[in-house]
Design a protein that fits this description.
single chain; alpha/beta
Length: 175
């Protein structure tokens, strides 16, 4: 199951983290790879570290938000970090160790050209059938959710798959 969240404003990360919490409630393992965020401590890190560390692994792979005030890194540094995050995501997907994988801001990294969008689409196609994967970004981009495949979900401005058909293998509605 692949879920793509899009839209302007807040809520995409919160929705993904809610799914991580719910997955943990079923004693299933989750992995969060943050493609943009740096080593700063965010609320989700505290929660994972203190309450969910045996069910959730979190990796901060980014150098921080790109081309905003206070960005002290060169574009090459951001691109290198994004490439390393992609390799980590590929390894995690191949491991089949996790029930849910959240690729936090991966689509944003593609939007700002830190990662080639074709690499992201190839990664979407590599998600094993036994793994649920969440991706998100501001705005919307049809290339991502049209590559999700039948029966996968999209939550954003317009859903190409009707919500009543976007179900998991456990037949629970996700969007």
């Amino acid at each position: 199951m692949i879920i793509v969240y899009t839209g302007n404003g807040k809520g995409k990360t919160s929705a993904a983290l809610g799914t991580v919490l719910r997955t943990s409630g079923y004693a299933e393992k989750s992995c969060i790879i943050q493609f943009i965020k740096d080593g700063s401590q965010y609320g989700e890190h505290y929660a994972v570290q203190h309450y969910l560390n045996d069910l959730v692994d979190m990796f901060q792979a980014g150098k921080g938000f790109y081309k905003i005030a206070g960005d002290k890194f060169e574009e090459t540094d951001h691109k290198r970090a994004a490439a390393e995050a992609m390799e980590l995501a590929r390894r995690i997907l191949r491991s089949k160790e996790y029930d849910l994988i959240v690729l936090d801001e991966i689509l944003t990294a593609g939007m700002v050209k830190l990662i080639d969008e074709k690499e992201i689409i190839d990664l979407i196609h590599a998600v094993p059938d036994t793994v649920h994967c969440i991706l998100y970004r501001p705005g919307s981009r049809a290339e991502y959710y049209k590559n999700c495949g039948p029966g996968n979900g999209y939550a954003g401005n317009k859903a190409p798959v009707p919500a009543e058909k976007a179900r998991t293998r456990r037949d629970r509605l996700l969007i």
